[in-house]
Design a protein that fits this description.
The chain has helices spanning about 1-15, 45-65, 90-100, 115-130, 150-160, 190-195, 200-215, 220, and strands at about 20, 70-75, 75-80, 100-105, 110, 115, 135-140, 145, 165. It has about 220 residues and is an alpha/beta fold. The chain is globular. The mean pLDDT is about 90.
Length: about 220
């Protein structure tokens, strides 16, 4: 939050043309309807989401108070090459490449809107350049949800490997009231304001990510599960 405040103040002092602020779909908490639009209530189900909500409100306040030219982008679950192994797609691929025989994951019933990195980058570029959208908050997501367990099975199929998708690992579970059970983006506003749409499908994005991981040295694929 302090970092966001410093950026906003510096942008105001320098008279920049636009600030694109990165929020997160986590600010919405568990979806209260099938698709999450920008008007969906915010729910801080974790300290992380609480700090992002606070940062979003700082951005909003600078726009209202000082007319600072800001656009807030709320990306849903971005994945792709170079992502940390702590992220779900990366850890699934790394574990499958390890050949250990069994996947170790947390809760596998929550759904997520997985959006390939190229789609997310396109959204950010447009948010920084399309005129007349200052002060808006815009979701960037595919509009497709998938359970984590189903995602693991899909990645396993695309990789052509055999591995048991086991029960949830207790050490990887979030506290029950902290877990966001459902996230799926309503990207209508992004389409209308930015002319944005997700050009790379989930399957094609996963294929590209799998190939990137396969090209990494074995030490970089290592995971402690």
């Amino acid at each position: 939050v302090i970092g966001t405040l410093n950026v906003l103040q510096a942008a105001r002092d320098a008279g920049v043309g636009r600030v694109v602020h990165t929020s997160t779909s986590e600010v919405y908490g568990t979806a209260q309807q099938p698709f999450i639009s920008e008007s969906h209530p915010q729910m801080a189900q974790s300290p992380y989401s609480a700090t992002k909500i606070a940062a979003d409100k700082l951005v909003e306040s600078f726009h209202r108070s000082f007319r600072t030219p800001v656009v807030t982008v709320r990306p849903f679950n971005t994945f792709g090459p170079r992502q940390s192994r702590r992220a779900v797609v990366a850890t699934i691929i790394a574990q499958l490449l390890s050949g250990s025989g069994r996947l170790h994951l947390g809760n596998m019933t929550p759904t997520r809107d997985m959006n390939y990195i190229a789609n997310t980058v396109d959204g950010f570029m447009l948010a920084g350049t399309v005129p007349g959208i200052e002060g808006r908050m815009i979701n960037i997501g595919s509009g497709r949800e998938i359970e984590i367990g189903e995602l693991a099975v899909l990645i396993r199929r695309l990789m052509g490997v055999t591995m048991v998708v086991g029960d949830a690992d207790p050490e990887r579970l979030r506290p029950p009231t902290s877990e966001v059970d459902r996230l799926c983006c309503d990207n209508t506003l992004a389409r209308e304001l930015l002319g944005w749409e997700p050009h790379v499908s989930l399957e094609d994005g996963l294929r590209a990510t799998i190939e990137w991981w396969r090209g990494r040295p074995e030490r970089e694929r290592a995971t402690d599960y």
